[in-house]
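Q: Hand in one record:
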Amino acid sequence: MAENTEKAVEKTQKKKKKEKSWVEGLKAEFKKIIWPDRKTIGKQTTAVVIVSVVLGVMIAVMDMIIQYGIDFLVR
């Protein structure tokens, strides 16, 4: 019975060590991140907004054209 307890304790210690190692690795990876500056974020945000608006307009126009075509065929 003592052997089972020792094995359980060893398993728990290994698990804690593995978790600690994982957390340390995660911290190390976060230190490697190069965060963009304010100007870059502004440019990227502007680009995303413009592309989204243009794509939305294109979809709306295509929808209107398709709806007109369907209405024309149905009448």
Q: What stands out?
A: The chain has a mean pLDDT of 87. The first helix runs from residue 2 to 32.
